Amino acid sequence: MVRIGIAGDAQPFLSELNKHKHVQYAGTFNPSVNSSELLPWLNSLDGVIFTFPMSDSYTDILEEIVRSGRHSLLTNPYTLTQHKTNPVLKMARESNVICMAGSEAFYNPLVRYTKNEMKLPLFIEAQQLKPFQQPDEKIDVVRSLMLEDIVTVLQIVNSEIKYISASGVKVLSDTIDIANARIEFTNGTLANLTSSRIAQKELHLTRVFQKDCYHVLNFLSNQVDKVFLASSPAAVHPLQTETTQVEKVMPEEVMVSDFIHSISLQQNVGMSLDLSRKALEVCDLILKKINFLGDE
Q: Domain range for residue 16?
């Protein structure tokens, strides 16, 4: 029996925990109600689903969870700054515990399906466009939209980043509304990412090109097209398309399942906190490139 508790809002994850017969839900921790009960509560657990945003006070709770030797699933990993992430990762290694990150992009079923079809991506083109809504003035389009595609690219391409170039502009707000980034990897793969939050129509496509074929991931229709040369020279159309309608699965379902599996195996089978940190580092580099060009 795996005993899992929830630190924070339990609602999105409680129903998913209850689907697993070999999991016992061990209650919720709320520091405003029972702050003195954290350690006794942790001592009865195998893992914690951590749903708090990463303010300083909540980060202290996370560090206590990791220090106690309990595995954790962070459902808001992008609110944990790099300054705070590195100590948590260090404690996790020292305590030999799993720190799993929750990201809708990582647990998207289209990405998981396509990863199994990938050999060596040569070029990736990601477009995410959304109609204008009054944005949070503190959050630019790189962090609000492009971050998802960065996570997708980083899990598809198994290589270090060689160089990043980027451009972006403020149009209808005081932060970047449209951005484009080009990421070059040491293995030769190129990724071109475009994000806009002032489009007239919504669009979210990622095209992954490799030798002999390419895949088109349509995140709005949950559909993957595989495009390849026809096997017969006499074919009416030289390019053939195989379309797969991928079953839509809620990210919370996959996160919880991977977390339980990780605890059972004592090995992270989901998204690592290190990948979350790396995605945020890429965001920061893109924004630095944009701001540098804007200052010229």
A: 2-97
pLDDT of residue 214: 95
Is there a single domain that holds both residue 55 and residue 17? yes
What's the pLDDT at 99?
Answer: 94
Q: What whole-number distance in Å separates Cα of residue 106 and Cα of residue 150? A: 10
DSSP structural state of residue 43: T
Domain with residue 79: its CATH number is: 3.40.50.720
Give, for 113, the enclosing helix (H) or strand (E). Answer: helix 109-115
The CA distances from residue 219 to 115, 159, 252, in Å, are: 15, 24, 17
Domain-terminating residue out of 97, 131, 147: 97
**15: Cβ contacts below 8 Å, ≥ 6 apart:** none
275 in any annotated domain: no
According to DSSP, the residues that pair with 126 across neighbouring strands are 193, 206
Question: Residue 148: is it exposed, middle or buried by C-beta count within 10 angstroms (0-12/13-18/19+)?
Answer: buried
Strand pairing partners for 229? Answer: 239
Tally of structural domains, the chain? 2
Same domain assignment for residues 155 and 240? yes
Look at residues 97, 120, 145 and tell me which one is the last residue of a structural domain: 97
Percent of the chain whose predicted confidence (pLDDT) is above 70? 93
For position 296, what pLDDT does the model report? 42
Average pLDDT over the chain reads 90
Model pLDDT for residues 142-182, shown as the tens digit of each residue: 999 999 999 999 999 989 999 999 999 999 988 999 999 99
107 and 255 Cβ atoms separated by less than 8 Å: yes
Say how far apart CA 28 and CA 88 lie, in whole Å.
22
| Alpha carbon distance 296, 287 (integer Å) | 14
What radius of gyration, in Å, describes the C-alpha atoms of the chain?
Answer: 21
